[in-house]
Amino acid sequence: MSQVDGVTEAGLRTPKVAAIAGVVFSLLTLASFGLLWSAIPAEPQASGAWLAANADEVALALNLISFAGIAFLWFIGVIRDQLGRREDRFFATVFLGSGLLFLGMLFVAAAAIGAMLIVFEDQPAAFAASPEFRFARAVSYSLVNVYMVKMAGVFMISTSTVAMSTRFAPRWLAVLGYLLAVLLLLGSSFVRWSFALFPLWVLLLSVQILAGNLVRRAEV
Questions:
Q1: Which one of 13, 96, 142, 175 is least enclosed by Cβ atoms within 10 Å?
Q2: pLDDT digits 0-9 by tens, 43-63
Q3: Cα separation, 129 vs 10, whole angstroms
């Protein structure tokens, strides 16, 4: 190994506490979606009364989502660091692709809801009863409750599969990931809060990785 390679490897070494990014993502996501679920009606055909009554709560939730997305990118990096050279190309592609698709749809849905708040503030009476509002509401609803949740389930399945083969996480956590992913894939249309299973599972996985890193660091 050349001197330059050695310096580069040492300089780019992943911090052991980087796994806290998953904890941050989980807590921010649970907080933001808790606010959204309490502020926005579950039915996409509901009126726009929540735009006036709960605008502050929705705006706070959208701000939290932006930071949650940043933390999720770090979490993906933590998982890839755990795999190292054991990373399988097939499952790594599904893992990375589903994670980025999940994040992209999360941001697009948040942008759609944020746009509704901006337009409503400019034209409150006209926008709440307009076809544009119903369209934007339906788009954000479909993104979150259909496509984004499905990508979260695929992310859990691919991550659990990699965990089973490489054992970077306990077997029970991988099995739990499979079970919760099935609930997301099949039950998200019926149970609104089912998406909360995803950040809760990420929280468990992050705590496990963080604890393992701290133990190894103490043993060095």
A1: 13
A2: 888 888 888 888 899 999 999
A3: 59
Residue 5 lies in a domain: no
Residue whose pair of structure tokens reads 């749809």 in the numeric block: 105
Any domain includes 10: no
Domain with 182, as residue range(s), is 19-219
Q: What is the pLDDT of residues 96-135, one digit of tens each?
A: 899 999 999 999 999 999 999 999 888 887 887 888 889 9
Count the domains in the chain: 1
- Counting Cβ atoms within 10 Å, is residue 58 exposed (0-12), middle (13-18) or buried (19+)? buried
Distance separating alpha carbons of residues 31 and 65, to the nearest angstrom: 9
